[in-house]
Design goal:
Helix content is 29%, strand content 25%. By secondary structure, it is an alpha/beta fold. It has a single domain, classed as Nucleoside phosphorylase domain (Rossmann fold, 3-Layer(aba) Sandwich). The protein binds hypoxanthine (HPA).
Length: 268
């Protein structure tokens, strides 16, 4: 592929070949402080990259290094609830893969369904529930569209994340992430249902990107920052402002751990 966005990127950062693509969700903006010698490119300069539409989500691509790793960090993502389309991250991820990325690291903010996973906890996603049953691969041709979703969240990357967290004395849970389409929060009845279905956390993103990434052959690691208990599980009043304020509290330590995880990744 050689899209307009790719040509623009070649002009912004000639010869730069990122190996790890990172998507930052609410509360994870602190990771950009760990990008060394960054080149910051507004999405508006990259045709097909999402216009920033949600408070707390930037709209820039950061190219640079975290540790020895060449990274492309998307500060801000497109959500299904913004337009109804779930393939808004397809072109950006195709471009990053074509530039050389082998791994996609995703982050998000999520609500917890487990009493032992309180706000400020960190959870690595071990598997997901695609509740809306929507796919960014609709319209793709060929048998490659029938993507195998076993181990969609790479077991080797999960083990790596847990080992790095243990080194830093940081508790990292593992769990199942349920994609709720949003933008409204869940009802208490929906939260009880999700719990019965085997979900540990719920959020409005990440799943479409994981599907796109697996179709592109990227290995995926995803981390959720728990910002609240699911609706009806506590007295807190859910709002986007609440999500952002809770995320801000844990943001620095979460981002420091993530930088350590990325900076020590072993690549082929
Ligand atoms: N539900 C859905 N998405 C979320 C939540 C939640 O409780 N918290 C943060 N993102």
């Amino acid at each position: 592929m050689n899209t307009t966005a790719q040509k623009a990127l070649a002009a912004w950062a000639p010869g730069f070949a990122p190996r790890v693509a990172v998507v930052l969700g609410s509360g994870w903006g602190g990771l950009t402080a760990h990008v060394q010698n960054p080149i910051r490119i507004p999405y508006a300069e990259l045709q097909g990259f999402p216009a920033a539409g949600v408070a707390g989500h930037g709209g820039e691509l950061w190219l640079g290094h975290i540790g020895v790793q060449a990274v492309a960090v998307m500060s801000g993502r497109k959500h299904g609830y913004e337009t109804g389309a779930v393939d808004g991250m397809k072109l950006p991820l195709q471009v990053l893969q074509a530039m050389g990325c082998q791994i996609l690291v995703q982050t998000n903010a999520a609500g917890s369904l487990r009493a032992d996973l309180p706000p400020q906890s960190l959870m690595a996603i071990g598997d997901h529930l695609n509740l809306p049953q929507r796919s960014p691969l609709v319209g793709e041709a060929g048998s490659a569209r029938f993507v195998n979703m076993v181990d969609a969240y790479d077991p080797g990357l999960l083990a790596h994340a847990h080992a790095r967290a243990a080194e830093q004395g940081c508790k990292l849970h593992t769990g199942v992430y349920a994609w709720a389409f949003g933008p409204q929060f869940e009802t208490p009845a929906e939260i009880r249902m999700l719990s019965l279905m085997g979900a540990d956390a719920v959020g409005m993103s990440t799943v479409p990107e994981t599907i796109i990434a697996r179709h592109l052959g990227l290995r995926v690691l995803a981390l959720s920052l728990i910002t609240n208990m699911g609706a009806g599980m506590s007295q807190e009043h859910l709002s986007h402002a609440h999500t952002l304020s809770q995320a801000a509290t844990a943001s620095q330590s979460a981002s420091a751990l993530l930088a350590h995880i990325i900076g020590t990744l072993a690549l082929d």
